[in-house]
Write a structure and sequence with these properties.
The protein is α/β, with parallel strands linked by helices and about 220 residues long. It has helices at about 1-30, 30-40, 40-55, 65-75, 140-150, 170-175, and strands spanning about 80-85, 100, 110, 125-130, 150-160, 180-185, 190-200. The longest helix is centred in the first third of the chain and has 27 residues, at about 1-30. The protein binds S-adenosyl-L-homocysteine.
């Protein structure tokens, strides 16, 4: 009846509010703090993921599909690391060996860890992926970790919400300092940018100004 419908609507609103709150926390804390948040409150992770899937479901295209298509065009022998893998769409869609990292396991394919410190040897992967996953404020530390595990000449793919970039050129310049040269930029989607880099060498260990992404905060609906 009407009261059940009302209750369902209230519950939906509460979940949406919790999603926005958790999302904001993830974008405004370090990856270590995010790891603590989800460890102490696994329900927060579920709520976050449901909200995330709803948001991306509204987009005309999910960037993860673009990355899958890209990987399918390249040799299946390449080893991939998926940082912030969520429900492991990449690992379950390609033939490659994929190391899938996230804070909480949504799938048995996930290795649970903070993406700033993954259990991989140096120079052991060919392709590192961050699909909508560059969330922590310790961006530089996270990208240095990707640099560490990538082989020389290896590929770094970054898909991020378009409105998070303040200045793409400054971002790409900062990436150069971290040991990544820009290979291609796909800015054709209104929702996300897809950037491809190649590892040129180790990062220069100093702050990379311009390496800034705005938090992606969702509006109340
Ligand atoms: N790449 C997936 C999921 C994106 S949602 C996709 O495109 O479908 C962002 C993911 O990054 C979430 O699953 C979140 O838990 C994860 N994440 C955020 N901070 C992390 C961290 N410090 N270490 C590991 N995973 C993290």
């Amino acid at each position: 009846g009407r009261s059940a419908a009302l209750r369902a609507r209230m519950e939906e609103r509460l979940l949406a509010a919790r999603f926005r709150y958790i999302n904001q926390q993830l974008y405004t804390s370090t990856s270590q703090e995010a790891a603590q948040l989800f460890q102490s409150d696994p329900e927060a992770f579920e709520i976050y993921h449901r909200g995330f899937a709803q948001q991306v479901g509204r987009w005309p295209e999910n960037p993860v599909h673009r990355i899958v298509r890209y990987l399918r065009r390249r040799p299946a022998s390449l080893v991939v690391a998926d940082f912030g893998c969520g429900d492991c769409k990449i690992a379950s869609s390609v033939k490659n060996k994929v190391h899938s990292f996230d804070l909480v396991p949504l799938s048995p394919l996930v290795t649970v860890c903070d993406m700033a410190k993954v259990p991989l040897a140096a120079e052991s992967v060919d392709v590192a992926v961050f699909c909508l996953a560059l969330m922590g404020t310790n961006l530089q530390e996270i990208l240095e970790e990707a640099n560490r595990v990538l082989k020389q000449g290896g590929t770094l793919m970054v898909a991020e919400v378009a409105s998070r970039f303040e200045d793409i050129r400054a971002f790409v310049n900062a990436m150069t300092q971290l040991g990544f040269k820009s290979v291609s930029k796909d800015l054709s989607s209104a929702f996300f940018h897809l950037l491809e880099f190649a590892k040129t060498g180790p990062p220069r260990r100093r702050p990379a100004p311009g390496l800034r992404l705005r938090p992606c905060l969702y509006k109340r609906r």
